[in-house]
Amino acid sequence: MRPAPGAEATCIAARALGLEADAFPLFAVHPLRWEAPARAEVDALLLGSANALRHGGADLAHYRGLPAYAVGETTAAAARAAGLDVVRTGTGGLQGLLGHIDPAHRRLLRLAGRERISLEIPAHVTVLTREVYASQALPLPGALAARLRTPCLVLLHSAEAARHFARLCDSAGIVRSQIHVTALGPRIAAAAGTGWAGIAAAPTATDAALLALAKELCQGFTPGS
């Protein structure tokens, strides 16, 4: 359900595990115009999505060589490709990363999406946020609607996607009780709501953990369960 190119990357990894998987992105990501702070005002970057690097535009070059804190491996790889020095990669969200900020990095620039989670900022840190991309919710594709009317398992990578997916199912009259949901974390699972055939959260916020959980659930699945 995640936007491209992440959706197809997840499917490729799922197929490598022997799963039958297809991508149905429910969001399209587009860049936003933003004002880049002067490099001298920034000690390090805080990155919660690879989309910030994909859609940040030419102004990202101002920060080449600066330290960066990345929410996960995919974001870290995009940051390195943009010339940033990734000093720490998280596994459980941006809030956890804020507990490991180098004392020398007091002024963080957060490149984020229009929709984002709120953070509790440590007293010794200031965070300047710039919205550099936005996600546009898409309608339910007909092919996906047909799939959802038979027993299946759905992967959800964000709370926004979980809420949107639940609304689409309800609007289309799709019965939740035959859809198994796996989420990238507990917060995302909670956002999906209730009534599903089953709902589970990956133990860590990585695609590898999510797909391992999906494989385990698929192996234990029997029609009608």
UniProtKB/TrEMBL annotation:
Keywords on record: Lyase
Cross-referenced Gene3D superfamilies: 3.40.50.10090
Tetrapyrrole biosynthesis uroporphyrinogen III synthase domain mapped to chain residues: 14-211
Single Gene Ontology MF annotation: uroporphyrinogen-III synthase activity
One Pfam family named in its UniProt record: HEM4
EC numbers: 4.2.1.75
Top EC class for this record: lyase
Name by which UniProt lists this protein: Uroporphyrinogen-III synthase
Organism: Novosphingobium clariflavum
Organism phylogeny: Bacteria, Pseudomonadati, Pseudomonadota, Alphaproteobacteria, Sphingomonadales
